[in-house]
Structure formats: C-alpha cells, structure tokens
C-alpha cells in the first residue's frame, strides 16, 4: 500500500480508501460482523481510511464500520463520516449518534455532507451547521472538518475560499473530469486533502469495461486499474475512495498499485484527450452548456443520460438521479428548448432531446 499526506493535517492516508456505501445491506444484527470482514480485509491490505455516513446500507453502514474498526489497532486507522443537516443542533445530534454507532470518542474527518447546489452551502452557513462542526472540533469530538460536494469546479472553489475546511471529498473520474478539474486545482492551491469519490464512475466503468477499454494504457491490465491510476496520477489527489462490496473488489483495487508510477503531465493530458475524443456521444460534463436560462442543471442530467446511453437498467438511472443528484426526472421538463445550451456544447450533443428523454424515466414499481 502507498500513502499520501492529507493536506496539512499531518496524517498520511492510504491512496486507496475504503467506502462504506456499497457494502451489503444487513438484514439483521447477525449480519454486521460478517459484512465487516470486507473492511477488515481492506485493513489487512494496508488501507487505513474508512469512509461512511448515515443512511448508507439501510442506515447501518456506520455500525458495520464500527464493528470493523473495533478490531483494529488504535491509532492505525482513520474514520470519516458525514452530516447533511442545515441546523447546527441537528448536526450535533447526528454527530453524537455517529460517535455512538462507530464506537469512537472522536471522528478523524467529519464532512459537511452533500453540497449539491450553491444555495445549500449558504444554507449550511446561515443554519449553523458549519459553526456546529467547528465547535465540535474545539471540543475534541472531531479532528478535521472537511466537506463533500457535487458542485461544479467554480462553485467548489468558492466554498474553499469562504471556509476553513482542511479537505474535500469530490467526484472525479475518467468520465466527469472536465467538470471537476477546476475544483481539483482550487483544492491543490489551498493545500487541502482531496479524496475522490466515484473514481470508477459509480460502477459505470467496470460494468461497461468493453466500452471504456480505450482508457487503458499498455501497462494497464483492466479498466478498473486504468481508472484508479488516472485518478492517482493527479498530484492534488490524496486518495481514491472505492466502495467495496466484497473482498475480491478490495484485491482488485489494491492490485492497481502494483508497479504503478504516476504518469507525467503530458501522458495524463494525452489520456484526457483520448477520453474526450472517444466518448462517442457520452457527455464529459465540462459545463460549457451553462448557464441555462431556465435554471436546469444540464451537466447533472447529462451524467444521468450517460447511463441511459450505456443501456443500464432504468432503476440504476433513477437511483442516480435521486440519490446522487437529488433530482426528479420531471425537473428536466423545465427546459424551454431555447437551444442556447446546444449552441455552446463543445460536443454538439442533442441536449434538448436528451432532457426530454430523461423526463420519461420511471422507477420500478
């Protein structure tokens, strides 16, 4: 395993971090220890950063992580959890519940969670959530206050500029990198720790390995390896956060480090150009289609359309809208078909047609 400094915190975390969102959902208390063995296997492989949150795995992920870290040597791991509350008192209540579930007396990395829109950042400030998190740090219940975001690059840079956060967890992968590069650059300039979520495109890349085979270099045995190496070749990235469901997935992610040397800047640029050239209609999320006069978050809907285009099940698409972007298919219907987005789109995509298609998505009964 390899380790990198997390910003200016003085902590070194494993470059492959373990995410607790894709663990099996327990059906009873008796399942907790069995599922926790996946994380213990990750620990044995040298992974020392374990990320979780309320609501994951039927609201039991924190308990699973707690069972795992309870069997680890104190001081040999770092735990990360989150809260999306706007109100400071609600955040404090959530934090105390997380401490109890995890069985720890402090959280190493506590996230202001799931900033999806610029106004949500303003709401967290006004509602007292941010102040409550830093108050908990002063009390020793939290070591580092960080944030998790799906905002655009410029919006993320604004949060960084207006806060005292020590790190950020953001989506960055071979599919959406144009939409996130400015966020990555801003975090690097501010010397923040950066953990990249969805480095495998939320499972999109391995599920469609043949379609994404073009991202592999001659030294990459598979697309999972290629996707992780792409992430870790950016010097601003501290760790790639991989959601594990079983021990085989742990082994595959860790194996991506075998013989890996960071690609130089020119090679990363070459890969990016190749990705952009070969998407064949998949939106890269650059954001040049914005602003939309009707306020439609076009890049987010185009991200969802990528899954439609790859012929995933409609439930996968609906879940992406609902859980990742907090959007409803009907929201795409706000489009007034003015055509401004299509004029600005560097890929010349039929955005209006795609937005209409998204309005037709229905979850399984």
Report on this structure.
An eight-stranded parallel beta barrel has the order 3-4-5-6-7-8-9-10, surrounded by seven helices. Strands 1-2 form a two-stranded antiparallel ribbon. The protein has helices at 32-44, 56-59, 61-69, 88-102, 118-127, 129-138, 153-161, 177-189, 204-207, 223-232, 247-255, 265-277, 298-309, 314-324, 340-344, 351-359, and strands at residues 3-5, 12-14, 16-19, 49-51, 78-83, 107-115, 142-149, 167-171, 193-197, 239-243. It is globular, with a radius of gyration of 20 Å. It has two domains: 3-270, TIM Barrel, CATH 3.20.20; 298-359, no CATH class. Helices cover 43% and strands 14% of the residues. The chain is of the alpha/beta class. Strand 5, helix 4 (88-102) and strand 6 form a beta-alpha-beta unit.
Descriptors:
single chain, 365 residues, alpha/beta, TIM Barrel, 2 domains, 8-stranded parallel β-barrel, two-stranded antiparallel ribbon, 16 helices, globular
Topology:
Elements: E1 3-5, E2 12-14, E3 16-19, H1 32-44, E4 49-51, H2 56-59, H3 61-69, E5 78-83, H4 88-102, E6 107-115, H5 118-127, H6 129-138, E7 142-149, H7 153-161, E8 167-171, H8 177-189, E9 193-197, H9 204-207, H10 223-232, E10 239-243, H11 247-255, H12 265-277, H13 298-309, H14 314-324, H15 340-344, H16 351-359
Parallel strand pairs: 3-4, 3-10, 4-5, 5-6, 6-7, 7-8, 8-9, 9-10
Antiparallel strand pairs: 1-2
């Amino acid at each position: 395993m390899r380790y990198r400094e997390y910003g200016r915190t003085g902590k070194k975390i494993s470059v492959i971090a373990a995410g607790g969102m894709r663990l099996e959902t327990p059906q009873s208390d008796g399942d907790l220890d069995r599922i926790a063995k996946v994380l213990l296997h990750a620990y044995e492989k040298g992974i020392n950063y374990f990320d979780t949150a309320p609501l994951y795995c039927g609201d039991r992920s924190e308990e699973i992580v707690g069972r795992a870290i309870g069997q680890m040597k104190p001081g040999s791991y770092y735990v990360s959890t989150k809260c999306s509350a706007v109100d400071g008192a609600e955040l404090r209540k959530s934090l105390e519940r997380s401490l109890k579930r995890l069985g720890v007396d402090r959280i190493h990395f506590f996230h202001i969670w799931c900033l999806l829109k610029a106004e949500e950042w303003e709401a967290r400030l006004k509602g007292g959530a941010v102040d409550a998190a830093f108050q908990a740090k002063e009390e020793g219940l939290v070591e580092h206050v960080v944030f998790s975001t799906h905002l655009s690059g410029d919006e993320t840079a604004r949060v960084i500029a207006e806060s005292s956060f020590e790190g950020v967890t953001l989506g960055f992968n071979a599919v959406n990198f144009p939409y996130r590069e400015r966020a990555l650059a801003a975090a690097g300039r501010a010397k923040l720790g950066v953990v990249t979520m969805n480095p495998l495109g939320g499972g999109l890349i391995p599920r469609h390995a043949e379609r994404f085979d073009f991202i592999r270099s001659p030294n990459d045995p598979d697309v999972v390896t290629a996707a992780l190496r792409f992430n870790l070749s950016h010097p601003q990235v501290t760790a790639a956060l991989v959601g594990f469901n079983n021990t085989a997935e742990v082994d595959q992610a860790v194996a991506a480090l075998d013989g890996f040397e960071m690609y130089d800047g020119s090679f990363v640029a070459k890969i990016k150009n190749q990705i952009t050239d070969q998407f064949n209609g998949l939106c890269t999320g650059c954001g040049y289609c914005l602003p939309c006069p009707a306020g439609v978050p076009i890049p987010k809907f185009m991200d969802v359309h990528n899954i439609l285009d790859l012929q995933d099940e409609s439930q996968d698409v609906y879940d992406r809208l609902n859980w990742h972007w907090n959007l409803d298919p009907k929201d795409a219907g706000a489009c007034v078909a003015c055509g401004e987005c299509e004029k600005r789109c560097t890929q010349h995509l039929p955005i209006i047609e795609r937005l209409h298609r998204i309005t037709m998505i229905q979850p399984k009964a």
